[in-house]
Every structure is written in structure tokens, then in C-alpha cells.
From TrEMBL:
EC number: 4.2.1.126
Pfam families the record matches: GKRP_SIS_N
Remaining remarks: A lyase-type mechanism (elimination/hydration) is suggested for the cleavage of the lactyl ether bond of MurNAc 6-phosphate, with the formation of an alpha,beta-unsaturated aldehyde intermediate with (E)-stereochemistry, followed by the syn addition of water to give product.
The protein's name: N-acetylmuramic acid 6-phosphate etherase
Function: Specifically catalyzes the cleavage of the D-lactyl ether substituent of MurNAc 6-phosphate, producing GlcNAc 6-phosphate and D-lactate.
Pathway, per record: Amino-sugar metabolism; N-acetylmuramate degradation
Catalytic residue positions: 107, 138
All copies of domain SIS, residue ranges: 79-242
Family stated for the protein in its record: Belongs to the GCKR-like family. MurNAc-6-P etherase subfamily.
PROSITE patterns with a match to the protein in the record: GCKR, SIS
Higher taxonomy: Bacteria, Bacillati, Actinomycetota, Actinomycetes, Kitasatosporales
Annotated catalysed reactions: N-acetyl-D-muramate 6-phosphate + H2O = N-acetyl-D-glucosamine 6-phosphate + (R)-lactate
Amino acid sequence: MTSTTDTPGAPDTPGASGTYGELRAQLATLTTEAFRPELAEIDRLSTEEIARIMNGEDATVPAAVAARLPQIAAAIDATAERMARGGRLIYAGAGTAGRLGVLDASECPPTFNTDPAEVVGLIAGGPSAMVTAVEGAEDSKELAAADLDALKLTADDTVVGISASGRTPYAIGAVEHARAQGALTIGLSCNADSALAAAAEHGLEVVTGPELLTGSTRLKAGTAQKLVLNMISTVTMIRLGKTYGNLMVDVRASNEKLRARSRHIVSLATGASDTAIEAALAATDGEVKNAILVILGQVDGPTAARLLTESDGHLRAALAAVRTT
């Protein structure tokens, strides 16, 4: 199965904008589409040589992300502020970019015990586009607007449009529609001066340069997008009190591995004996954060639940409340 990216489709694709010549001229301006003549005979190299070149290319991505950390941090703070008011984090993209958004969203419930509706990934063409290309879906701004309308978008929500090229109509349409509804908007692209970044309140342009394979933005651009999406969701959840230090205290223990991890987290946070940990988890219906508060705050389960509610789920704040009473 071939992997699609968020670059434009063929000129006869339904809904595609402009002519073949116009699209070709647009692509010629994008660094993610640039041809690298020094790699023109890469197929004649040994496997190890190709792997070494590719690894060297990948090593440049963190620096490209680092160059945009102030802008990324500002976008995260704005996102956390909206989510603290009950808003949602919504990713929207096509092809590889859309899949990365869906992936990041799907990892939030088991990692941070979020409701599946709190962090949502939209991909042009719907769920089937996760594994099969849906022709023309990325070329429709209207489709993006309809997908957001189906979620009943509010002004407390944050919409992150994702597109390596920065010109994908679906991602731009999502950002434009969300901004018109008063939602916070972030545009994540891998080209400078992109239409997507211009359409968003927070434009994040992580310029990763030409790809090893010309135009294959699932490579460096995709890696950069994953790094930034990891930051957006993870740091937002830290700001919302979903962690205690670097411990995932809101982890959902939905299988044996996670149940074992839950006990390990309580142990790391409290230093308590196995017997005390089991008793605390039993008193809190298996909620890790509550169990830690039971042990460290020396309170019962219902009191721990109340204190965490009063502190908006922030364990440090709940512990401070115990110590001042």
C-alpha cells in the first residue's frame, strides 16, 4: 500500500483548484517539494549508506522545531487556557498530516484519562482515510467546515490545522471556519510564509527543508509534525494538572500493563509499601491521582476526590490545601 501525503492531487481530481501549470508553479515554491540533485543517484548506494544519510536527515528535525519553541509555547498556553474552560483540542489535516493528528488524539485517553471527545482528530475523507486515500478530500475547504460543524464547535475549542505544504485546502478551511466561530486556531506547516500559518492566530512554521525523496513529506516534515503535536498535547495536559512532576497520574488503567504502571506511579510518588498502595487504590476505585493524595495527604477516598475537584484536578494544589488545613 502506498502512503499519501498532503501535497496536491492530480489536476483532474474532483474539487482540485487551479490548473496543472498553476499547481506545479505553487509546488516549485515549497521547500518541502524541492529536488536535491546531490541525491539523484541515492538508489545506487548501499543500504547502510542510504540509512546513514536518512538518519542524518532526521537528526536535523529537532533543531527546526527548537527554532519555533517560543511560538509553540505561546500556542500551548492559549490552548490550555481554553481547555481549562471546558474547550476541546481538535486536529484537522489530510493524508499523513491528518493521520498524525488522529494518532496524537487517540493516545490522550489512555495517557491522560481524557474523554475521547476532549481531544479529537479529523482527517479529510473520514476514518477510512486513515488507511486508504480518499481522492479529492484534501482539496475541499467546505468538507473541513462541515466536519467541524458536526462537532458543534464552540469558542472555547482549539483547532490545529496540519499541513506540511501549508497550502492544503482542508487544513486551511478548518482554521478559517474555526476562527470565524471564535475558536482558537493554530496552523502547523513545514514551509515559510504559508497560507495556513497566515490564516491562524498562531502560525507554527517548522521549516525542515527538502526531503530525502522529493516531496515525500511523511519523512522529515512528518517527524516534525509529530514532535510538535506531542508537545501541544503533552504540555497542555501538564498545564491542566494531568501529571505530578513527570508522572502520569491520570493514566487510565485499562489493561494489565497499565494497572502495573499505576501501582509503580503511586510508589514513585509516595514511597509507600505495596500494602498501603493497594489499600489507597481500593479506596479510590483505582484512580492513581486520588490514591497518591490519600497516602501523602493522609485523607480518605471521598475527601481526596473532593479536594481534587476543588483544585480543578491539580494534585499539587490539593496537597497544599491539605497541608494548610
